[in-house]
Amino acid sequence: ESQNGRKPLKASEATRISHSWRALPDLAKEAVERHCSVVEWPAGAMSEEAKENVLHGEHDVGVTTQDYEGARVRLCDPLRVAAEVVDGIQPLNKFRRLYWGVFLGSLSGSSPDQWVEQLKEQRQQYKKMNATHQELLKPGALTGLDPNVFHPLSNAAHNPWLVRHKNEELMAEIWKDIERTFAERELFQSDSVRKSLQRILFNWSKEHEDISYRQGMNELLGVIYVVCFRDQYRQSEGTSKAHTVCSQLCCGSE
């Protein structure tokens, strides 16, 4: 038996898992090991608030509360989790967002009730951040400034006009990549989805100006967006609402 008391894996299964494990970047391996835990949700054990908020917010669409009954999120075996991540987590599709949230560090702990509070706080934080960074991009936002103090042609570092110009350049740079992001997929042909991705990357860049935007970040965000979108989508609700839900809860855009 292994050190954790489990029976040894069959040779074929062990080979597949070890190959999957090696295929993961070191950062993903560390994340799996760091968040190794088991979450059991036996029928009736979750609070009503957790059922309504863990995978979707107050106005979100997605799986129903009945889907949570008797469910299990298994993060106790890093090798098995790695294999499921590489294979697409097929047996646990409705929990893909939870896996990603844990692996990327946005969700911590092993209690669904903890995740509820974390998600609520993250939504509020993003709303405030988005409002701050999008303000200078609004048409007419600078028309009330005194030109004797803030001249549009001034090169002063903190001149709002110069800051706005740099912001517009950043938005344009991001948009060029967004237009090419998984362009063959119908989801990413939607103008609202593209603008959502653009805002997310812009806001992230403003929060991390020492790094700012780099080509390729659009591809990473696109993958996460798809994961979030699929978990939110419900055929009867229509795509426009699903886009909004995915942006507000999973990706954070307004």
From TrEMBL:
<dbReference type="InterPro" id="IPR035969">
    <property type="entry name" value="Rab-GAP_TBC_sf"/>
</dbReference>
<protein>
    <recommendedName>
        <fullName>Rab-GAP TBC domain-containing protein</fullName>
    </recommendedName>
</protein>
<dbReference type="InterPro" id="IPR000195">
    <property type="entry name" value="Rab-GAP-TBC_dom"/>
</dbReference>
<feature type="domain" description="Rab-GAP TBC">
    <location>
        <begin position="90"/>
        <end position="254"/>
    </location>
</feature>
<keyword id="KW-0343">GTPase activation</keyword>
<dbReference type="GO" id="GO:0005096">
    <property type="term" value="F:GTPase activator activity"/>
</dbReference>
<dbReference type="Pfam" id="PF00566">
    <property type="entry name" value="RabGAP-TBC"/>
</dbReference>
